């Protein structure tokens, strides 16, 4: 029995070891898989400081392409965890875009299962674990899925260690949320495969859990591809077995999984509805990076044919990470073997591969959702379906290895390596004479392409050599071992070249300017005159509120407000390409927005600005005309339409310190003697103590958004929209305590549906368990 248990556990041990061996040498020396070097080497005020022996402004950046993990994922993760640790639900992010939803931001992933690590381990250790663990679990789940397809343990282990080191996983590894979502694909397909044959309560529950976590893990686009694959696989299984019962069971699991995820789905759909997603992130004719460029299919064979961002010689369509479908030369060769030898067994995988190419490449079919502006789909970049392309190729390659292991040697075994080698040699010849290749702009790029074909050619020659040796029984074992070792070496090298690591001490270090801002009395906001200074979202790690932000989701009203602010006249929401950085500090809208500090490279000669300190090239100024976060106004002027509100606010004669504007209501002008003091301030709430001689409007320069509630002396009071997109409440005369709290109704409605889903799942589980054991 012990031997049997050990035998079953050995493959899991091997796949886990393959992943851990890649990370162990770096983690052992205290390195963390995050591109903190990009923060120190590209952005101020960090570039103004010497770190780790490098002169100011000279800190080396390994991979300038990867900045999002340090500019988005890490800050959001820290905000979520910090709120939970403070016993607050992470509803609101006051630190970016002058405030917007946090929980509703899909990528913040507050209910991702990997977040539990952050409550057990120190943050940076938990970060490392949440990057590594999904890869280990991907490997485990892939092994189980391949075994369910009746592949041998060797072939299953082979496919299991390739997938975490394939192009999509490597490109998105340091994001965490993408790979945490992607890891569920083989597990979901395993459950569907098992349930299609025979009902199992365990696999039914695992499927429900997996489907809910796909939604909750933070990357809906990857999740949508998993759902698409799952539906295709279920239909494929139905036509294979002609039974409705499994479809009903799997369909019930889908419904329950989505129901359990409602606490995330409803707030996120609300946020999407108010966001600029369909404006700021969309396809337009001539955009080269939206679909997979046809020439970039070469990256399946040679990932660095167009160069690599880590060597600063990339010359392809931006960006490298979106188009790299690499799985290794030997696995690709084995995929060809499977296509020639096992077409019947890989039918579904070939369909999935074809669907991936049809959706991912620009053609009359793939362009339809973007031509007709399909909701949600039209804002999804189709090149990312390369995830399914790599998954299908990896799975097919495991079937190819199975053919080598169990089939008699045939000429079909050596045709794929010959074809791959021939194609690579043709590319090498064309690259050598660069002027022949239309996409090669000069001789330098031709040399890059040629140089980066050498290793793929070498691996294709070795694959041909060792596959040829399989015809000799005495060389069979050593040839198979050589193919496995070479594959591992190639994928390790590929992953190491692209993946950045940083010393823990260099992750969001403090500088003189940051220390100063961190210690000032809150609330206030900062802005910068150049996006290279305190890049959007970075300030949130230091709990500094900013007018800027970097996110695929941000409010449409804020986009229009900033466009108007920057232009000094009423403007439509511009296309910010996810990064909003208002720079017009001279405008009185900056004063209204409680912008107390301005960061600049240049000297600011403005009477309202006072230089506080200077650090390297970065200068910090204090705005002496800043309005407080909360203040009373003497009147509310009514205008017709929201555009007129903006126009009135820009009017030089309109005093924003004493007057407000609304298109919904008015308030007659009257002089008032009042006072406002902030008694408590947190991410999710604001408490005030006020004193007013007459009933007046209290203006709060926080973003107006559904879910904000005001309580005057613990009695709920209506919040109205004022000054285009900010908050106001009518405060009766006298002394009062006022609290503003963000309590999103969509979350609580979703929570009720989630509770219903959990209740139904438990009920179904109990009934099925009782039926089995009665």
Automatic annotation (TrEMBL):
It comes from the Bacteria. Keywords: Membrane, Transmembrane, Transmembrane helix. Pfam families: YfhO. The chain crosses the membrane at residues 12-31, 131-149, 169-192, 199-216, 222-240, 247-266, 323-341, 348-372, 384-401, 413-433, 453-471, 478-496, 750-769. This is Membrane protein 6-pyruvoyl-tetrahydropterin synthase-related domain-containing protein. It comes from Candidatus Curtissbacteria bacterium RIFCSPLOWO2_12_FULL_38_9.
């Amino acid at each position: 029995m012990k031997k049997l248990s050990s035998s079953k556990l050995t493959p899991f041990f091997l796949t886990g070891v393959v992943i851990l061996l890649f990370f162990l040498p770096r983690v052992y020396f205290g390195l963390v898989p995050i591109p903190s070097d990009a923060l120190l080497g590209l952005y101020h005020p960090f570039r103004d400081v010497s770190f780790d022996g490098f002169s100011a402004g000279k800190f080396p950046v390994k991979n300038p392409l990867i900045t999002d993990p340090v500019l988005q994922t890490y800050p959001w993760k820290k905000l979520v965890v910090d709120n939970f640790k403070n016993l607050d639900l992470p509803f609101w992010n006051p630190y970016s875009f002058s405030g917007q939803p946090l929980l509703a931001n899909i990528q913040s992933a507050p209910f991702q299962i990997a977040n539990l690590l952050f409550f057990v381990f120190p943050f940076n250790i938990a970060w490392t674990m949440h990057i590594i663990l999904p890869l280990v679990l991907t490997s485990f789940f892939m092994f189980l899925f391949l075994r369910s397809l009746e592949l041998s343990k060797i072939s299953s282990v082979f496919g299991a260690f390739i997938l975490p080191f394939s192009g999509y996983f490597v490109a998105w590894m340091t994001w965490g949320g993408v790979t945490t979502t992607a890891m569920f694909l083989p597990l979901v397909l395993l459950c569907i495969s098992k349930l299609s044959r025979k009902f199992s309560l365990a696999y039914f529950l695992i499927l429900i859990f997996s489907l809910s976590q796909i939604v909750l893990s933070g990357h809906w686009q990857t999740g949508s591809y998993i759902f698409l694959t799952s539906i295709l696989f279920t239909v494929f299984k139905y036509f294979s077995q002609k039974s409705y019962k499994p479809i009903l069971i799997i369909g019930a699991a889908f419904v329950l999984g989505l129901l359990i995820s409602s606490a995330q789905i409803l707030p996120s759909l609300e946020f999407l509805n108010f966001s600029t997603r369909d404006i700021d992130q969309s396809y337009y004719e001539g955009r080269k990076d939206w679909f997979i460029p046809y020439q970039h299919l070469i990256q399946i064979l040679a990932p660095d044919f167009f160069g690599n961002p880590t060597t600063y010689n990339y010359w392809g369509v931006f960006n490298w990470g979106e188009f790299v479908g690499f799985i290794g030369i030997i696995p690709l060769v084995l995929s060809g073997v499977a296509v020639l030898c096992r077409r019947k067994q890989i039918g579904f995988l070939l369909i999935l591969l074809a669907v991936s190419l049809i959706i991912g490449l620009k053609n009359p079919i793939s362009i339809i959702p973007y031509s007709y502006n399909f909701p949600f789909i039209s804002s999804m970049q189709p090149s990312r379906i390369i995830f399914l392309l790599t998954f299908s190729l990896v799975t097919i390659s495991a079937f190819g290895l199975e053919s080598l292991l169990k089939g008699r040697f045939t000429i079909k075994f050596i045709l794929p390596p010959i074809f791959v080698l021939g194609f690579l040699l043709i590319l090498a010849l064309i690259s050598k004479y660069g002027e022949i290749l239309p996409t090669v702009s000069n001789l330098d790029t031709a040399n890059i392409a040629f140089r980066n074909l050498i290793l793929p050619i070498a691996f294709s020659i070795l694959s041909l050599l060792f596959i040829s040796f399989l015809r000799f029984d005495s060389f069979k074992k050593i040839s198979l071992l050589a193919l496995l070792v070479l594959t591992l070496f190639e994928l390790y090298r590929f992953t190491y070249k692209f993946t950045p690591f940083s010393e823990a001490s260099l992750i969001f270090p403090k500088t003189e300017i940051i220390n100063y801002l961190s210690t000032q009395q809150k609330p206030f906001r900062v802005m910068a005159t150049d996006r290279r200074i305190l890049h959007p979202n970075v300030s949130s790690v230091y709990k500094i509120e900013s007018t800027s932000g970097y996110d695929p989701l941000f409010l449409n009203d804020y986009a229009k407000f900033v466009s108007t602010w920057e232009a000094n006249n009423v403007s439509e929401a511009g296309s910010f390409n996810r990064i909003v950085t208002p720079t017009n500090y001279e405008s009185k809208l900056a004063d209204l927005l409680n912008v107390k500090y301005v960061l600049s490279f240049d000297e600011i000669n403005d009477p309202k600005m006072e230089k506080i300190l200077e650090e390297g090239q970065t200068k910090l100024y204090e705005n002496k005309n800043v309005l407080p976060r909360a203040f009373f106004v003497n009147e509310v002027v009514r205008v017709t339409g929201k555009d007129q509100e903006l126009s009135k606010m820009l009017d030089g004669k309109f005093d924003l310190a004493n007057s407000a504007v609304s298109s919904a209501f008015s308030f007659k002008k009257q002089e008032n003697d009042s006072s406002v003091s902030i008694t408590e301030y947190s991410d999710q709430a604001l408490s005030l103590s006020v004193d007013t001689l007459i009933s007046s409007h209290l203006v709060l320069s926080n973003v107006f958004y559904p879910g904000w509630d005001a309580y005057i002396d613990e009695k709920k009071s209506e919040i109205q929209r004022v000054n285009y997109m900010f908050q106001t409440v009518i405060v009766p005369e006298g002394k009062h305590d006022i609290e503003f709290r963000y309590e999103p109704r969509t979350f609580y409605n979703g929570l009720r549906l989630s509770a219903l889903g959990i209740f139904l799942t438990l009920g179904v589980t109990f009934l099925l368990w009782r039926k089995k054991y009665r």
